[in-house]
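Priority: medium. Attachment 1 of 2:
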């Protein structure tokens, strides 16, 4: 028998082997990060249109923006060219502001003779329609809402062809702090070679109005420091756009002309819009309780520092006859407390010192205890206040509940039960990427308040300060109620809002709704606004006869209503998990009686039906896809969809919708799936169709082969020395 290897040498070789194995693991991890994630073991059938195929390029991008009164309309025209002799799909996204809708979509091929028009369909149906069109080598486009501020656009381009896309997006505007702010999609979320941009701004009377624009790009456009306001339209052409850091979204604002004291009412006999902003009412006194998150996550991105700046600035605006309390929370409901005290100069100075000394610490958040303790303090203020004082709880949160009661339904219910009389209005702010915004919004909805997300990429302090000033600044009215009726008795329904907790100076109430009547409706519509003021209860009335409008204007009124109403319905649907079906019925009146056991299902169904009728894209419900209604395009049954610009090994490639936003999406359809899909009775593009596993066409092969080669080398090395 051969002599055994010395123990020290054996130990040394084992240590070397373990080190080698560790090195392989490290290399594989690095390759995984650099080259892509592991392929899924199941077919990818996710929610998002996030893949491109082949080689294509956006050769032109033109945004024509027109701001008219309370609507910002942007017509985007883009041209996408295909470099390959196969049908390519080009995906890009637009960063859009809140309250933005997709109004229309069209495509043209090279010749421009055949136009396809956008139609809203159920999400899965729209995807099927688009992929079927692309697989036949036809030009087309598909748009879906990926997030509240992102719209994904996919364009199919024929072999060696071009597809021209016209997309119209509209933003509903509203007056806050005496100004109307607008945001416009200046550029897509990808670099393009050539950008053109036009902008004009008109007031209610149709005349040009002075406006401010937040655009400073040296070499393209720089705001004149001596003339920050612009009257004339703006026209820009940037043929070398890749050389500049052009913002994706352009912000601006203007001061609108005043509306009548009793409000402005418009109706076309089917739809109505009501604008209301009193100008001759004195400010009401406020009791304010500020509930500020100081858990450890508030350290990140200087969130607490920004909150402290905004809160200190708002404290400076308080009057000596108003009271306020500051409660900091984290692992405990009350970590630190200041007040309650009046808004005198001395007290405000002490409060700002307290704010300056706030610090973040602790890794847990007791939302339940924090809300209830703050609410007890606020209700105590109510009991000791006069009738002309408004009590408001303002919350700033950065985390989910992780300590104490963490059940979200219990948290919402306990707050609602304690504040069942709604004597305290609750307004919530949360950092969208980390706070429990769904819970915060449900709490605000249940307690007569509002909620607002604080988003990354914008100044935190400005966002917090703007919310405080616009929603809770000089409060003119509280417990605002709006009602509508026709002289003929025709039913008025679907109002986008009928109650408002408070109305601040410079803020504008906008309510939209529908009238159920026949074409002969000619009677007046009356609007009644009731609210509490510093002088007691007051009423405002305004009436309007139907305006005979062009079909485009009438459609615009209905689309604006539908957009507002769907937002209202989907907000309630998301909050239904906390509110419950019985209580949800108190917050909305549906068009038709609900026959489902779950009221939330009826709420979602009305939103879906309205989206289809108004041709609106709604996240998670509908998408817009172009349809060749005139049958003017000629399908190519032999067309193939490009993937990575190649089709190696004769493998059939098909794209898929992915639920991983960061993934590559040039995917290889596994050979085993082809036979299965062909034998199946359903379309291979259907979400319910049998599928094999998708693999990455290039990076996954390189990652796999490299890892296997390294593993083989190390295994051989170990076998030689054991």
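Attachment 2 of 2:
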């Amino acid at each position: 028998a051969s002599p055994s290897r010395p123990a020290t040498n054996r130990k040394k070789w084992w240590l070397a082997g373990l080190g080698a194995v560790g090195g392989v693991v490290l290399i594989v991890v690095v390759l995984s990060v650099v080259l892509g994630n592991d392929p899924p073991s199941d077919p990818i059938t996710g929610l998002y249109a996030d893949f491109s195929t082949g080689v294509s390029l956006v050769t032109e991008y033109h945004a024509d923006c027109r701001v008219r009164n309370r609507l910002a309309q942007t017509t985007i025209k883009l041209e996408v060219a295909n470099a390959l002799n196969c049908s390519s799909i080009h995906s890009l996204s637009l960063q859009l502001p809140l309250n933005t809708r997709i109004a229309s979509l069209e495509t043209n091929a090279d010749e421009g003779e055949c136009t396809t028009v956008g139609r809203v369909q159920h999400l899965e149906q729209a995807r099927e329609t688009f992929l079927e069109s692309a697989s036949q080598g036809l030009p087309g486009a598909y748009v879906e809402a990926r997030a509240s501020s992102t719209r994904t656009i996919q364009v199919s381009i024929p072999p060696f062809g071009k597809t021209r896309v016209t997309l119209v997006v509209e933003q509903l505007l509203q007056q806050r702090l005496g100004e109307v702010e607008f945001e416009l999609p200046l550029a897509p979320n990808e670099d393009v070679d050539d950008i053109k941009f036009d902008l004009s701004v008109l007031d209610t009377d149709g005349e040009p109005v002075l406006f401010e624009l937040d655009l400073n790009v040296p070499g393209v456009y720089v705001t004149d420091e001596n003339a920050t306001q612009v009257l004339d339209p703006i026209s820009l052409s940037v043929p070398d756009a890749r050389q500049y850091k052009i913002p994706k979204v352009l912000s601006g604002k203007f001061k609108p002309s005043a509306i009548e004291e009793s409000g402005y009412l418009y109706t076309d006999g089917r739809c109505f819009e009501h604008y209301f902003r009193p100008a001759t009412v004195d400010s009401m006194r406020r009791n304010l309780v500020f509930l500020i998150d100081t858990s450890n996550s508030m350290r990140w991105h200087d969130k607490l520092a920004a909150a402290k700046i905004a809160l200190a600035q708002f404290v400076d605006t308080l009057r000596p006859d108003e009271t306020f309390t500051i409660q900091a929370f984290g692992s405990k409901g009350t970590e630190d407390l200041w007040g309650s005290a009046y808004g005198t100069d001395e007290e405000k100075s002490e409060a700002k010192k307290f704010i300056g000394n706030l610090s973040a610490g602790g890794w847990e958040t007791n939302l339940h205890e924090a809300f209830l303790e703050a609410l007890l303090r606020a209700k105590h203020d109510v009991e000791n206040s006069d009738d002309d004082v408004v009590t408001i709880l303002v919350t700033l949160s950065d985390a989910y509940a992780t300590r104490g009661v963490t059940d979200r339904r219990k948290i919402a219910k306990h707050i609602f039960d304690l504040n069942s009389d709604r004597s305290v209005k609750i307004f919530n702010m949360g950092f969208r990427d980390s706070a429990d915004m769904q819970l915060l919004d449900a709490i605000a909805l249940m307690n007569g308040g509002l909620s607002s997300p604080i988003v990354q990429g914008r100044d935190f302090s400005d966002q917090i300060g703007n919310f405080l000033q616009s929603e809770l600044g000089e409060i003119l009215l509280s417990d605002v109620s709006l009602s509508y009726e026709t002289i003929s008795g025709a039913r008025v329904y679907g109002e986008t809002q009928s109650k408002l907790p408070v109305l601040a100076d410079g803020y504008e109430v906008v309510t939209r709704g529908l009238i159920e009547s026949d074409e002969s409706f000619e009677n007046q519509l009356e609007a009644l606004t009731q609210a509490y003021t510093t002088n007691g209860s007051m009423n405002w009335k305004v009436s309007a006869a139907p305006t005979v409008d062009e079909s485009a204007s009438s459609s615009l009124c209905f689309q604006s209503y539908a957009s507002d109403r769907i937002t209202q319905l989907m907000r309630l649907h998301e909050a239904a998990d906390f509110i419950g079906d019985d209580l949800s019925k108190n917050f909305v009146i549906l068009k038709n009686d609900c026959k489902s056991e779950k009221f939330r299902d009826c709420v979602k169904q009305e939103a879906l039906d309205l989206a289809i009728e108004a041709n609106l894209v709604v996240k998670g419900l509908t998408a817009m896809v172009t349809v060749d209604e005139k049958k003017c395009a000629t399908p190519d049954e032999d067309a193939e969809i490009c993937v990575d610009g190649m089709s190696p090994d004769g493998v059939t490639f098909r794209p898929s919708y992915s639920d991983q936003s960061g993934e590559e999406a040039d995917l290889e359809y596994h050979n085993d799936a082809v036979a299965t899909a062909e034998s199946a009775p359903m379309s291979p593009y259907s979400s319910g169709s049998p599928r094999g596993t998708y693999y990455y066409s290039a990076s996954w092969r390189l990652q796999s082969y490299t890892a296997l080669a390294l593993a083989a080398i190390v295994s051989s090395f170990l076998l030689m020395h054991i």
